[in-house]
Description:
By secondary structure, the chain is mainly alpha-helical. Among the domains are: about 95-305, no CATH class; about 335-470, no CATH class. It is about 50% helix and about 5% strand. It is built from 22 helices and seven strands. The protein has a three-stranded mixed β-sheet with strand order 3-5-4, covered by helices on one side. It has a two-stranded antiparallel sheet with strand order 1-2. Strands 6-7 form a two-stranded parallel sheet. α16 crosses α17 (about 400-410). The longest helix has about 35 residues, at about 10-45. The chain is elongated. It starts with a helix and ends in a 16-residue tail after the last helix.
Amino acid sequence: MTVIENQPKSAIWLTLQVSEMFRRRQKHAIRSQQSQQRLQQEQHQPSDSLRVVIKDETANVDRRPKSPESDWLIRIRQKVEDAHQNHRANTWSRRCIYRIPQCLRESNDKGYHPQVVSLGPYHHNKRRLRSMETHKWRAVLQILKRTNQDIKLYLGAMKELEERARACYEGPIPLSSEEFVEMMVLDGCFILELFRGSVEGFNQLGYSTTDPVFSTLRSMHSIQRDMIMLENQIPLFVLERLFSIQQIKHPEHIGTVSELALRFVNPLMPTDEPSSTKSTDETAYQFDPLPELVGEHCLAVFWRSILRKGSQPRTTVNETPDSVNSVSISIRVRQQLIHGATELRDSGIHFRKRETDRFWDIKFKDGVLEIPRLLIHDGTMTLFLNLIAFEQCHLGCPKYITSYVIFMDNLISSPEDVSILHNCGVMEHWLGSDSEVANLFNRLCQEVVFDKNDSYLSSLSAQVNDYCDNRWHTWRATLCNKYFNSPWAVIIFIAAVVSLLLAFIQAFFGVYAYYRPSTPPSPGPFPPGGP
């Protein structure tokens, strides 16, 4: 203690400096060591732009840290790849069963939804239609008993057609492979039983006369109406495959599936005129199964059968490769092809019923518009709505039914128009009033995309409009409609003309007698004084 106290102040200061220097060197060494450790870690740690793939015996594992941006990029690339696969597969060319566009559905949603039975994936397993599933299984059971076959045969056949059948439908189908195959077998067998029962008789197939479905009761009309809805279809090749399996052990010559389908839905035809060529039974076996369409279904068969009962209507446009592949675009407004029936009558045009079963075959000649007889019932609106929707959705489908319905919509604008057509025998309906018929046609073509220049009736409409624009025809029609609208008016007119002629003749002879020059009497054989 004494020694330390006796040390000079300079020695103490030197000791402190040495200690401080030693502490700084130690701190610097620690920092250097930490820097080297960080450098080594950075050398062994990959950057964001590097990918280190560790290979093991099973798979490659991506060690790159993922970020939201990279996940987004992966999703975009996956969508591009899906679009590429769809382009290579060209799946849209095989579509023939579509979902109703929202613009059409808004006008009349009920006309596109099945009311009794669901067929296909769009309305599958809906609660209000589940009661018919029991009857579908009854149909499958009856087929297996009658053919003595195993259900595995049908399931295997549908498994082979699954990919092709899925391609016929528009949009994704939220059903697994097993669910989809089961649905095809169930719905297909149900449809075939209805087809065969309508031809052979349900009693011959093992059903009782009091069966709630497989009989000729009231429900059959509702089932027929559901089977011509666009969203409620089964591809025709599925039905043909199931039908061919049933024919393996017991072949029967009852016609093709197309013929059976046409017979089943034929009661919905909106005409009661007899066939212009042969009866339905005679032509059924000669019906062309329409091989030109890749995809087919009951609605398409019905659509083709309507137009094949004679020569197909012609469009007025020249079909070139560009025009055929082009898409007709028009404003969704009321397409005015022709004036209303009342206005046409006032312009001198007469209506006459055309004797033919082709309800679309309308003719015009010498002021007479000949229209085939049309039947309007509770299923007519559903029929026309789905036929129009099929023409609107199907690729390259000509719009014949759309043209006809728009033409009739132009003719019928009021209950008076309906009355005129009804009195001429052109139209017959079982609705409540003429006003309901007018409203039916006015609602059919709402929001329909249609080019009136492509209509097969555009040339006829132009002829009718030219006839109406002739003033002489209008004056003559006004004279006949206002002054000669009854036999008594004609008789009165004739009497007036005769009276006028008699009065003119009487006046003529009176004037003629007054101005006639006097002539001297002719001399006799003797002189005036006598003999």
